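B., you asked whether I could sanity-check this one before it goes into the benchmark set. Here's the sequence:
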Amino acid sequence: MWNRLKAAVMHVSVKERIGIMVLSCMVVVCCLVHRIASCYLAPEETDSLRLKAAVAAFESQLKAYEKDSNAWPARKVYAEHADKQHFNAAISIPSALFYFDPNKMSIDKWQQLGLSNRTATGIMHYVEKGGRFRQPDDLRKIYGLHADLLARILPYVRIPHEITETYKRSDSARPVYRRKSFQVIDINTADTLVWQGLPGIGPGYAGRIVLFRERLGGFYSVEQVAETYGLADSVFKKIQPFLKIGDSSLKKMDLNLSDEKTLANHPYIRSKLAGMIIAYRSAHAGFKRVGELKSLPLVDDIIYRKIEHYIEMP
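And here's what the prediction gave me:
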């Protein structure tokens, strides 16, 4: 039998022998590692009896807590509280409620009501700087005071009557600002002082409007006021509701008798058009009708509709 075994070994190649030896070594190493680990890493034993006792004690405390109708549901705030880091300090279970004046409380007293140290300190700083609670609802302005806690302590607020009455008197004594009323003015007769009585019109605007009106010979339309040099469109829109046209007549020019300087001084004619009018008048022995102005190169329909109000024929 030994001969047969020897013969079988002889048929195995050198590589196969090395592989068998390596595999055998790995098996031995694995067995040793498992044995060593089992010695040093013993599993922790769970004391099931002790765990059951702790669970039972917790359940009994929970039932006693639920029977107490005055228990404060502090953990309800957790889902609503934005700053989880300060949750435990944000709200606590009040040991006892008592009547109090928020203007004369100490930090300790605020904490007895359930406020956190941070919120109580903020209230103290507010009072020390001259702040006052004049009515119970003023407590709603306290930052960090939870709504449930506020509803619990609000009925116990007692502020002296004289402080509340002082607050009411000061509130009623505040001035009531009413919108200033403006009178409607006649744009053809109002002087600079009357113009300054309108919103947004100062001495500068008033003087420009009156000067523009005199050079025109009067306004035939309220919209003409907006053409005043430098008058902002926003200002015109403010004063427009207070403008009207009276019965005064416009100052007109004789198209055939007015000299070139008089014509050129009119805001709607200017010097170039005045020269064309004089030239046309000389070439055609005067104007026969006002409509002839349309034949001049600088007079379009818009210019003509403006000029015709200030031109007269003999």
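One thing to flag: Residues 14-40 form the longest helix (27 residues). Otherwise nothing jumped out at me.
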